[in-house]
Amino acid sequence: MNFNTESPATREELLQCLRRHQSADFRLAAGGTDLLIELKKSGPEDLTLINLGRLEDEEFTGITIHPAEIRIGALVTAARIHKDPYIHEHFPVLHQAARSLASAQIREVATIGGNVCQASPSGDLSCALAALNATCEIIDMDGKIRHETLSGFFRGPGKTSLLKSEVLKGISIPVNQDETLMSGFIKIGKRLAMECSIVSIGYHFQMNATGTVIQAGIAIGAVAPTVVFCTRAAAFVTGKKVNDLTEEEQLQVAGLIRQAASPIDDLRASAWYRSEVLFNSARSIFEKA
Amino acid sequence: MDKKQVPISFTINGKKMTRQVNPSLLLIHLIRDELKLKGTKPGCMEGECGACTVIVDGRAVNSCLYLAVNIDGKQVNTIEGLSTVERPLHPVQHKILEHGAVQCGFCTPGFVLSIKAIGDECVEQGIVPSRKEIAKELEGHLCRCTGYVKILDAAEDYLAHPILQNSSDHG
Amino acid sequence: MRLRIIWLIQSFKTALIMDKKLKLIGKSTPKLDGSERVSGRAVYGHDIELPNMLHGMILRSRYPSARIKSIDCSEALELDGVECIITANDVDVNRISYKRDHPVLKGETVNCQRDELAAVAATSRETARKALRLIKVDYEVMEGIFDPFEALKEDARQINLYGKGAESFGNKNIAESFTYSHGNLEEQKKNSRVIVSRRYRLPRVTHCCLATSNITADYSVLDGRLTLYASTQVPFLYQRDMAHALKMDPSRIRIIQPTIGGGFGSKLDMYPFEPICALLSMKTGKPVQLLYDREEEFIASPTRQTMVIDLTTGADAEGKFTFREVRIIMDNGAYTSWGATTPFVMMQTYSSLYQVPACHFRADAIYTNNPFAGSFRGYGNPQATFSVERNIDLMAEELGIGKDEIRLINANYPGEITGQGLHFKTCGAKPALMKVLETSDYERKNREKQNGRYRRGVGLASMLHVGGGAKIYRSDGCGTRLKLDHYGYLTIVTGSSEIGQGSETVLAMIASEELGIPLQQIRVINTDTDIKPWDVGVHASRTSFVAGNSLLGAIRLLKDKLNLKAARLMECETGDFLYEAGSIRADQKEIKIDKVVREMHFGSPNELCVAEYFYEPPSSFQDKQYMGDVSGNYAFASQVAEVEVDTYTGKVKVLNVYVSQDVGRVLNPVGLQGQIEGGLAIGIGYALTEEMIYEKGVLQNPSFHEYKLLTPVDMPDIHFYPIETLDEAGPYGSKGAGEAPLIPSAAAIANAVSDALGVEFQSLPLTPENVLRAWSEKRQHEPANSRKV
Fold first, then answer.
1. How far is B84 from chain C (nearest CA, A)?
2. pLDDT digits 0-9 by tens, A215-237
3. Nearest by CB to B149, which of C208, C711, C718?
4. Scanning C314, C386, C582, C606, which has the fewest C-beta atoms within 10 Å of its C-beta?
5. What is the interface pTM, i.e. ipTM, of the complex?
6. B48, C30: Cβ pair inside 8 Å?
7. Which CATH number fits domain C45-142+207-300: 3.40.50.920, 1.20.950.20, 3.90.1170.50, 2.40.40.20?
């Protein structure tokens, strides 16, 4: 590993830095817990790392709660998300996903922005955020902001819509419309910790006083080229009393979720296993109710 | 080609220090190869085993996945920082010994520092973690000798004390 | 009734050994060297820095099977900071390994992924790594042979050109072969009510020492002496092997063992990287350090034997075992390490774990283009035990008798001399079985079956392993030197090695017990072949037993001297004085031990208070038919595993493991418990998560990320019940204990999962996918109306 680092301390320095390097080979590093492993294995010689580890800008590093949304800066760590009481109470799916990510030491360093920009199909935070209908806030080197839904942001394994002139600034999640929730994150691996998901499911159902789902989000990880938002399954659940689904309906939702997947065989599991476990786990969401 | 050195100032084990470092230098290499603090162990160099764990600003992190330039302005504690002439071993270390939680010992400094960091955080928040919670917090450490039972015994014992044996410092 | 009588005899023996009231032995004592390790002060191989030291690195083959046409190092040699590059053409060395079939550097052909082609010494690791990338190798790639059954075929080519298979075993690709038998197999088959035949496949797993392989070599051009800072478990055999490889006089080689970051059998052999590092030092005249990174550790360090076991076993109508017939094909890989001798241990399990009237055993180690297998804690026994204990469950099911009952009926007993000639002078097999059955509530849990998503099951397995060393080398002995100084401090110089298992502490405890010297005044020196006397090494759970007995012998001699002098000084008859709290006590008299030593040193006649002793265990070499009492004593253990299987995901959760083990006597409870728990973690990993995945000889998962060790959250509750049989051969009646805890674990867990699901497993690991697949297949064969979960 032998690269240069630029460590901008302010937003203006960051944008300058981006402008300066447009014609060069550079990578953005937030926590760096994935990137450094990648660079150790195959680091090009003339690379510049734009290191965000020393950036001091509340909009990148803070969590703020607004009337319609909660905004999480791209440099907020997984540990901070996991320990945040608002997220714990209102978005259990995100809380649980953050807690299931890698290890305590990595959670202290790994960031939400890093997890999303890696665009790994098995990204735990990405999966939870997709279930929450999150939106990316992107700033370009001239300071212009654009917004894009997470499902639009992911373009393939390791691929996002982010241009070379852009950097992810934060993620916004719409606040809950109702606070009766069924929300959680299921992660399947070979052991109970330090896992890269073989299958993951994030779900977040908001219900009214009668228990009818008014807003549903279901996303799945590690079973397709990107994290997938299960539109049909979410639509199926919306308007129904999620605690009173018949067994047939439960199997129907699980089937719809399975249909959204296009798993492959790899070192960690076969497509068959992923598909079976996705179905079974999806079913289990409704059974325990 | 050698890259432009970067100046950093930080505190390590209570001592202020300013150095010029290679921009791609990892924290573990700064600690082991330049500062010669060999108690921080290289187990896997990819954040999977936790043997290289150090404490940065009160949080346990893997020094193998941390850029040295990012400790600028921060406080770093390594295993060597737990020993002083007056108090050769920290209470965590006494618990590890007492419970027989060390065999080959290569993973031990990392475990000790994580347990200390957990303890400091728990004191701050006034909580006593359950054994299950402790195991979860230590999931990023591998040990091939002990089967973890004695390590968890030691951690549980240490963390059960409301003020961690009266002598936990933050320095 | 018979059992009870033997128990009485045993308790009588016990009374003799128990005669003396023990002060320290049997009490939990923290590791003496623990504070060094816990404080980060201990110096491991990775921490050594010598002046002017270079960094070595090895170029390995890109292909598992190829002819080497040329190696061009010229560009790499130009690189600033590169001091030396060696290939097979640059060195004059002998082939290594126990079969001498392993070239240190490969010049003609490469036979597996880890093959060493060239090595660089440079001023930094970074430079060495760059140099490796500049070395150009011209390969003629050959189709590899990765399946041992393919390698056995007539038309297969000879994989290892130095193998002696054709002459010795009638097939060019057989590296090693063992045949053993006792009893009348045909007659016993006729006596059998039930006969069960199964084929078992066991995976390749590896040690995963937290510290990767390392060595620092320091050759002096001044006197031609070579100092090696080497993490070996067997320093004296290592010295001999190194001397053979380098064509040097062994005594010019000094082995210093730094603190060792895990062994588990991996450091029982010398591997090519070690003479390579020595050669780099000899060529440059500078110290050279060679450290593996984690990926290299996975690719290039030894593994447990993967094998295919065909086992046929029988039992009569009452459930008494009649015979075992076993044929094993082991994948030896490209070269032969000590690991090829694991059948030596396995045959003991087949011949003698439970009472077996007839046994026929054949095991062949077959050359392939896979990485070569080495020795690993348990030494073949986890594999053998897995097959035996699975078959026992199947026989019990077929006979309709309890899985607990069938094992009790056939359990080994004290006084038994087995078909192979192993003599169980003491035997805790049945007590261990009864203990785990009772504490786990096995009978009830085995009866109760669940429906629904989560299903519980219990599984039972036992094991037999050597407990008093194993005579596999000309000597299985250990030397000890003692020096008591005139301030009352004792130095124990022992041939044995500490690799984290706690033997240093046990030795100090024994000395403290016998001489009444506090632990703080005892030092153990055990890391330098220039100083320490002979010992065969850390293996076969032998260290506490052999080194302990050696130490006790030396202490007896030291006490003879001390007693004589003390009697003279106290003006009394010499006798069996009491050594306590730094003093030697006669009836009414007492004298400080340091004063006695001062009088020895400075009084007349002047003499040193030193003693030395060589202990050779009473075990015997087995004959050509492998008959004979190979160990000083034998360890027995049983385990019950209780699991919960998630039928949605196939995930097996081990809830509890009940372990009972005949350890002879507990020397250091906390140390013993640590061996049990640590062993179980390896055993459970073997059962559930660990597996090296190869594709055409190339490892697909060389990282901790993809090779799944258990983490702190994956461990079950462990309930341990030692059985003390007080075997008179061992120090204070103790037996070796280090390997036993991992031997029956995989068998017990597989039995438990089978119990939970009603599905049979013939291979490991029981990954969620493998379990779910078996479960799905079973459900497909069930009638539709019973399928609702």
1. 11
2. 999 999 999 999 999 999 999 99
3. C718
4. C606
5. 0.96
6. no
7. 3.90.1170.50
